């Protein structure tokens, strides 16, 4: 079961000084309510030093009124919410200072010949300087020399000013010198270990240089980390390009955060259907008593769908309509397994993992629909429909492969090849087929093929851009790997999807389409999936090669 944690910078992330500022409250408060309704903890981390009633009122104006944890002064202080008040974590305060020598820091600072003017801001246990219009080259040389004097007990963090535009030539903002165990990265590590040790998925959002150590840090598996740089400053965007794990959003922070929360954190797939089934959840126990596991419900939905699909080819219109209703019920039943799982009822220990079976059922429903229609068609129409059936596997494979590398992709995209978009088109095509409008049905099936390929190519291009020179195709990646994976669940899912795709290709070949034709009409890097020995590779990597 997923246990989520969200971390937000404030200035420049939750709001920015732009025309979109008045809308930030409305967007942020929706995100805040969404997270609170699902009991997802919220951590705010900032370079601001003060934490008082005015700050809490300002947070209310920005739409994040009651975070669970507040980290201030670049990770120097941590405040945890207890009731209606916040208490500072003194254990953390003592921990970060235990190896720090503040007296030596003060002596080095007082004797250091800074070649540019600055304003000193008192910071307990560290140093905070504000500078304006300093040459970037001079600043880099100065801080490099200062870091050597400070040694390994201290770290330096930079935060750009929101009021003054920074570029590659000059810097205006704040310089923090804090203990090595502090900073936004160190404080977040402590919060994870001390407050939320059961976290499985961590989402962090920032916008500036001060956030990059937090966004680029490495966390131990099986924790999955999804760092996002939103509305980035010029300097942070240049630096973040060197860290492939950071997802960069050029738009306004609140909108980008809301999109990530909706698409990734809370997994809004089939949202209208899920809302309906949650409303009808009291009837779920009548349909499926509690002895039915989530996997049992998934299998039941697939059986209903397949039975209905057979009826859609009947000579009698009434039976065809009955088949359509059964297909719709099979699709709706598929989302009921999530309700049963969220109630804490597990699958049997010897059963296939629920995520794999759910993915298998989804792909089978799509594949079998198109395969069934292909059997009634001739010539190019039949061939094109069979290729559309195979294309339904590709977007899911590429998404799972991206997540194997820790790169999260939203379920829906602008190309229209996501599951929810595909399901809608498939059911419309099925309806046209039932009422005898096969020409219209064929056109929609061709559209499904094109949208699937476009989404696959879009996801592959995004992954290539994120990984840069580290990118390799799936066959090369898995052949090089041993049993060490940062994201083993996603790796297992990717190989599983490839295996059922290979089985689907074998099924299509029996319907008269050649393997050569399939490879010629697949994107080049999708063809490589056909050559993978998934069964032996799963065994080599320690995954169970499930057969369905």
Give the N-to-C terminal Cα separation: 24 Å
Question: What is the average of the pLDDT values?
Answer: 85
Q: Spatial order of the strands in the main sheet?
A: 5-4-3-2-1-10-11-12
Shape: elongated
Oligomer: single chain
Major sheet size, sense and barrel closure: 8 strands, mixed
Instruction: Give the helix tally.
Output: 23
Strand content: 5-15%
Radius of gyration: 27 Å
Describe this structure in words.
The chain has 548 residues and is of the alpha/beta class. It folds into 4 domains: 177 residues, HAD superfamily/HAD-like (Rossmann fold); 78 residues, Gyrase A, domain 2, CATH 3.30.1360; 81 residues, no CATH class; 194 residues, no CATH class. The protein contains 23 helices and 12 strands. An 8-stranded mixed beta sheet has the order 5-4-3-2-1-10-11-12, with helices on both faces. β2, α2 and β3 form a beta-alpha-beta unit. The longest helix is centred in the last third of the chain and has 30 residues.
Brief description of this entry?
The protein has 548 residues and is α/β, with parallel strands linked by helices. It contains 23 helices and twelve strands. The model has no long low-confidence stretch (mean pLDDT 85).
